[in-house]
Design goal:
With 107 residues, the protein is mainly beta. The protein contains no helices and 9 strands. It has one domain: Lipocalin. Helix content is 0%, strand content 64%. It is globular and about 40 Å long.
Length: 107
């Protein structure tokens, strides 16, 4: 298996806002099981279907829609173990988006 592939691996994803996830990717790369292990939504767990593409060697765009309607897109660079994340969600004032950065650590 390509060592620069996310499929079949688990990562600790630490986001710049203090939230930390454990992301476990299915062996075929089409599903994600995540658990929030730190931050305001600690304890949240979900399994989602992924849409993914390798856009450069070791760099993947991975996106999904959560049960809540939140949309998430990660630009995962497995060469540098960094992520640029963009997510959108509904608020009483309408849909908002947030851009974050973070780091990956294989666990």
């Amino acid at each position: 298996m390509n060592t620069r592939n996310y499929a079949g691996k688990t990562f600790r994803f630490s986001v710049d806002n203090g939230v930390v996830f454990h992301n476990t990717y299915a062996a075929d790369g089409t599903r994600l099981h995540y658990e929030t292990v730190a931050g305001p939504t600690k304890g949240a767990v979900e399994d989602v279907d992924l849409h993914a593409a390798e856009v450069s060697p070791g760099v993947f765009i991975v996106g999904w829609v959560e049960q809540s309607g939140m949309t998430v897109t990660h630009a995962m660079n497995l060469n540098t173990n960094t992520v640029h994340a963009f997510w959108t969600y509904e608020t009483p004032d309408g849909r908002v988006g947030e851009l974050h950065t973070g780091t990956l650590e294989a666990i």
